[in-house]
């Protein structure tokens, strides 16, 4: 089967795994909680921005979208902290999500560095 270029990226594939993982966590959170909406949108933003960024022609455009995806991943980590602090999820569950996010963030930093001469260090 043919694939779009972004589908070949490990960061994209891992972000899709995280979206599925986050969907299960969302079922534990009442929709009335503000963090529910944030944790629905932020995980979704990661693969969407990776795909859009990968389709851009200039390095600066690609990096801008990869930066947004990275920011969304960091927002997800903060959401997990908030849900743990509010005792909506167990700390061990949050740590599982953070392990996935650390992997995604690391890959996004690699994509940013490989697409930006000024951010290689």
Walk me through what this model shows:
It is a single chain. The chain has 121 residues and is mainly alpha-helical. The protein has a single domain, classed as Up-down Bundle (de novo design (two linked rop proteins)). The protein has four helices and no strands. It has helices spanning 10-26, 34-54, 59-85, 91-114. α1 packs antiparallel against α2, α2 (34-54) packs antiparallel against α3 (59-85) and α3 (59-85) runs antiparallel to α4. The longest helix is centred in the middle third of the chain and has 27 residues, at 59-85. The protein is elongated. It starts with 9 loop residues before the first helix and ends in a 7-residue tail after the last helix. The model has no long low-confidence stretch (mean pLDDT 95). Keywords: Ribonucleoprotein, Ribosomal protein. This is S23 ribosomal protein. InterPro entries: 23S_rRNA-intervening_sequence, 23S_rRNA_IVS_sf. One of its GO terms (cellular component) is ribosome.
């Amino acid at each position: 089967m043919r694939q779009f270029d972004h589908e070949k990226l490990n960061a994209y594939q891992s972000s899709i795994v995280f979206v599925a993982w986050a969907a299960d966590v969302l079922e534990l959170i009442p929709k009335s909680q503000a963090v529910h909406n944030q944790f629905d949108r932020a995980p979704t933003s990661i693969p969407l921005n990776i795909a859009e960024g990968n389709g851009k022609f200039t390095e600066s455009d690609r990096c801008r979208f990869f930066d947004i995806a990275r920011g969304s991943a960091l927002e997800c980590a903060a959401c997990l902290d908030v849900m743990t602090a509010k005792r909506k999820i167990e700390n061990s569950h949050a740590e599982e999500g953070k392990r996935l996010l650390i992997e995604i963030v690391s890959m996004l930093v690699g994509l940013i560095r490989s697409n930006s001469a000024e951010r290689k260090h």
